[in-house]
Amino acid sequence: MISLYEGGVYLVRGTELIPEKERDRVKVLTGREADRAAKKKETIAYSILQAHNTSDDMEHLKFRFDSMASHDISLVRGRQ
């Protein structure tokens, strides 16, 4: 089953999703405040962006690509 959440969620103990609008429950369950800005830095997407950013500013990214993929539209067929 797929559930959609307005405004994001917090994953608690790897199993429970707490909607952003119920962020006070995060402190009850973990003893720590739900800090959206700090948690954003713990995501996989953030770590990938940070690893490929050549600037010192995460608000104004400059990317370094280590590989690139593209479709091939230059297919040449030989004679049959």
List keywords for this structure.
alpha+beta; two-stranded antiparallel ribbon; 3 helices; 80 residues; single chain; elongated
Strand content: 5-15%
| Cα distance spanning the termini | 50 Å
Main sheet: strand order? 1-2
Number of helices: 3
The profile of the biggest β sheet is: 2 strands, antiparallel
Structural topology:
Elements: E1 9-12, E2 16-19, H1 24-30, H2 36-40, H3 44-52
Would you write up a description of this structure?
It is a single chain. By secondary structure, the chain is an alpha+beta fold. The chain has three helices and two strands.
Write a short abstract of this structure:
26% of the residues lie in helices and 10% in strands. It is of the alpha+beta class and 80 residues long.
